[in-house]
Input
Amino acid sequence: MKKFFGFFQSAGVIIILCFILALCIYNFVFGNPANFMDNNPANQPLPGNLLGTIHKGGVIVPVILTLLLTVLVISVERYFTIRRAKGKGDLTTFIKKIKSSLEKGDVAEANNLCTKQGGTVANVVKSSLIKYEQMEKDESLTKDQKTSNIQQSVEETTALELPSLEQNLVVVATITTLGTLMGLLGTVVGMIRSFASLATAGGTDSVALSTGISEALVNTAFGIATGALAVISYNYFTSKIDKITFAIDEIGYTLVQTYVSSHK
Output
């Protein structure tokens, strides 16, 4: 499972695979001849056939569909990554147990709790506890220097762990705007076709006009849906990461204060 999701941590790989899948869906699902009159994709969609209508959205549809699939794949990958980062048990309970162990001065128990919990928060705490024990044995430094070293250990480990949680979220943040813009582009292209059909010599081409309007509306809907999903996904995962960061900061503060209060 770990190797499987590790493969999907590369944004480039995700986008390429999603683009290939989007083309397949556009051509073989939306563009299935059964969705159109006389089994011909060049004709109008069957009345009430949504798949055929989406296919008439034009070449912008697979692009927007790629963005939509990318958001979905990254969201699933981030969900499991952040879930692993929290560890096996409840994070709030883990924090309380660690604080209790530190208040009692039982560093060994705190280490055992980290081993059982696993995940990013536990890794940061365990690394800091190692530095904590080293400072207790070091007689060459002053108390302020030792306290500073423990705090620095917390900050350095946090700086190493957190980027893995935020990976690929910048792509989702970009799609929040890009999805809407691509929908707008498809809308403009569709309207251009609509007005071009109105300007056709000899009268209005109703088929071309309806195709252009369909293209405009489909791309508008797809673009808005993609942008909305990206915003929801980005805000959801950043809030989860903020909670993990807060948990690390809380334990780091407790660790430093425990050393200050228990060492003269």
Notes: The chain is about 80% helix and 0% strand. Residues 206-262 form the longest helix (57 residues). The CA atoms of residues 57 and 70 lie 20 Å apart. The two ends are 48 Å apart (CA to CA).
